[in-house]
């Protein structure tokens, strides 16, 4: 899964882009303490560790 695909899933579920720090984009959702940090490296796939962290923190499925 690429950054663009993950971004689309997050935005569809109410997560909002709040900040870009270097090559990482941060998303927040009202009422959730977790900040989703997603690396943006062009068309490269996100690592399994990043996807599992996003799934655990957001409660969404990225697979």
Automatic annotation (TrEMBL):
Alphabetized InterPro entries for the sequence: HicA_mRNA_interferase, HicA_sf
Pfam families: HicA_toxin (PF07927)
Signal sequence bounds: none
Entry GO MF terms: endonuclease activity; hydrolase activity; mRNA binding
Keyword Hydrolase belongs to the record: yes
Keywords, sorted A to Z: Endonuclease, Hydrolase, Nuclease, RNA-binding, Stress response, Toxin-antitoxin system
Similarity-based family: Belongs to the HicA mRNA interferase family.
Source organism of the structure: Alkalibacterium olivapovliticus
Keyword Hydrolase applies: yes
Gene3D superfamilies xrefs: Hypothetical protein
Protein name: Putative RNA binding protein YcfA (HicA-like mRNA interferase family)
């Amino acid at each position: 899964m690429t950054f663009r695909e993950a971004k689309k899933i997050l935005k569809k579920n109410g997560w909002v882009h709040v900040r870009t720090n270097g090559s990482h984009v941060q998303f927040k959702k009202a009422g959730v303490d977790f900040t989703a940090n997603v690396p943006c490296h062009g068309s490269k796939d996100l690592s399994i560790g990043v996807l599992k962290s996003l799934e655990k923190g957001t409660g969404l499925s990225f697979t």
